[in-house]
Amino acid sequence: MKKVVVSASSLPAGRNMSSQIEYLTRISQYGGDMYHLDIMDGKFVKSKTMDYTYFEQLREKSALLFDAHLMVEDVEKVLKNYIKSSANIITIHYEVFKDNETLIRALKKIKNAKKMVGLAIDLPTDIKVIDPFIKYLDMVLIMCVKAGKGGQDFDKDALKKIKYVRSLSPDILIEVDGGINDETGAQCVKAGADILVSGSYIYKNDTYEAIQKLKGKNG
Fold it and tell me: Which one of 7, 102, 118, 172 is CB 3.0 to 4.6 Å from 36, fit for a cystine?
């Protein structure tokens, strides 16, 4: 059976540090594999969340892999701060770059800093835009909802995108985010996903039970 990696989204815990620490502690204790740090600047998406200044206090509480998902408009301006942070993976959005050369330059900066490199593709974006960048990536993040808001319903078009990326590379990590619960998560894993990012489903239910169900362990 394929090992499913569960990454808990930081979004439901909000911008309060104590809430973030309490939630991260629960995730660490109850079988989560990663913490998905949703970074929103209020420009690329409407909401505004935590930023890199939270990372060090959170790192003191957990050794989980930290995946910084930058939903920000000006990646080039802030990237150095995340490269210096305790994030293990830095994921940037295809949609915020004006041309391929600028995006490739940013991907190389992350790689040169010995961080894992992720590229996120938002729901409305044609997945084939990923083609020129595969060789620079450790991970592709496929959004199953429109980026920027928690609690949305899973869009099944994401399954086709997962299969497409998997056809390009048998080895690249595929992460999915948005509307992920035990049912939609299982569909994504069957299509070829490796990492399930889940926010509301984990946060609003019994933490241990939700994580185990995402991993396919129901009893």
Answer: 7
**Would you please indicate which residues are annotated as catalytic (active-site) residues?**
38, 177
* Average pLDDT, 10 consecutive residues per value, the chain (219 residues): 89 94 96 96 88 94 96 94 97 97 98 98 96 97 85 89 97 96 96 96 95 83
Q: What is the number of other CB atoms lying within 10 angstroms of the CB of residue 56?
A: 10
Q: Which residue has the tokens 């926010």?
A: 199
Each residue of 153-172: b (16+ CB within 10 Å) or e? Answer: ebbeebbebbebbbeeeeeb
Smallest CA-to-CA distance from 176 within 18, 163, 46 is with 163
Indicate the DSSP class of residue 130: G
Q: Please check whether residue 66 is in contact with residue 87, taking contact to mean a CB–CB distance below 8 angstroms.
A: yes
Residue with tokens 């935590």: 50
Residue 160 C-alpha from the chain's centroid: 18
Classify 73 as helix, strand or coil.
Answer: coil
Backbone φ and ψ for 7, nearest 5 degrees, come out as -115, 115
Q: What residues contact 212, with CB distance under 8 A and at least 6 apart?
A: 31, 218
How far is the C-alpha of 146 from the C-alpha of 151, rounded, in Å? 11
- Model confidence, pTM: 0.95
